[in-house]
Amino acid sequence: MNHLDALPPWAAIVVAVLMLTGASFACIGSIGLLRLKNFYQRVHAPTLGTTLGTFCMLAASITCFTVAHGRPIFNEILIGVFLTLTTPITLMLLVRTARHRDVAKAVADARQAPGGD
After folding, report:
1. N or C end of the chain: smaller count of CB under 10 Å?
2. CB neighbours of residue 58 within 10 Å
């Protein structure tokens, strides 16, 4: 017998709804990555969608193990903390790098254009 057999029906429903919500957010973020046209638009959809999806899945995991073990289980909160800290920093660094590249390319193109000096 595993711990999932011991879950009461109300907890199984809560866990299922949270997991499906998290999977939906992650799927929407992935679709946004494919459908959006430029880098600056593409960078937002996956970071927002997968972050929300991960938080819903972490809430489902916390609920499942807390109910199954009969005591609060908060190990997954560390995952949420690290995700909250690293995702915006990574987004900011990627956008700054892309902007720097675009500005450098625009300056180089302006210098090569006739009468650009």
Report:
1. N
2. 19
Provide the whole-model pTM.
0.77
What residues have CB less than 8 Å from 98, skipping those under 6 apart?
A: 39, 40, 43
Segment 76-116, tens digit of pLDDT = 889 888 888 888 888 889 899 999 998 888 888 888 877 65
The answer to whether residues 7 and 67 touch, using CB atoms and an 8 Å cutoff, is yes
> Token digits for 91?
């987004």
At residue 117, the 3 state secondary structure works out as coil
Q: What are phi and psi of 36, to 5 degrees?
A: -75, 150
Cα separation, 97 vs 55, in Å, equals 28
Model confidence pLDDT, tens digit, residues 1-10:
576 777 899 9
Cβ atoms of 59 and 17 within 8 Å: the answer is no
Q: How is residue 72 written in tokens?
A: 């609060």
Tokens 């916390």 sit on residue: 62
Token pair 């939906």 in the structure block, residue:
24
Q: Mention every residue, 6+ apart, whose C-beta is less than 8 A from residue 77.
A: 58, 62
